[in-house]
């Protein structure tokens, strides 16, 4: 850290934990105001079954149905978010 601070090149550090959902919900659309923001474009999709890329695609956008307002915070829910579709972990 001391070397980075001495150089003075780092202006902002953002730490996202688990998922990018909060950023997208709160700030993702700000890309339309500032193209340098790595936000959402409206072309994003999630598959209904993340393990099956041929399953129904759910599109991101202003008209998207808001299904789950808050992912679970229990140990089981966290385990599922990390590992259920990521067998390589």
Automatic annotation (TrEMBL):
Keyword field: Hydrolase
InterPro entries found in the cross-reference section: Alkaline_phosphatase_core_sf, Phosphoesterase
GO molecular function: hydrolase activity, acting on ester bonds
Listed GO biological process terms: phospholipid catabolic process
Listed Pfam families: Phosphoesterase
Domain of life: Eukaryota
Protein known as: Uncharacterized protein
Originating organism: Oryza sativa subsp. indica (Rice)
């Amino acid at each position: 850290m001391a070397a980075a601070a001495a150089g003075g090149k780092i202006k902002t550090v953002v730490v996202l934990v688990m998922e990018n959902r909060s950023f997208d919900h709160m700030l993702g659309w700000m890309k339309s105001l500032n193209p340098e923001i790595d936000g959402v474009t409206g072309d994003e999709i999630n598959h209904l079954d993340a393990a099956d890329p041929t399953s129904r695609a759910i599109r991101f956008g202003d008209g998207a149905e808001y299904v789950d307002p808050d992912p679970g915070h229990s140990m089981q829910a966290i385990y599922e978010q990390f590992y259920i579709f990521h067998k390589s972990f």
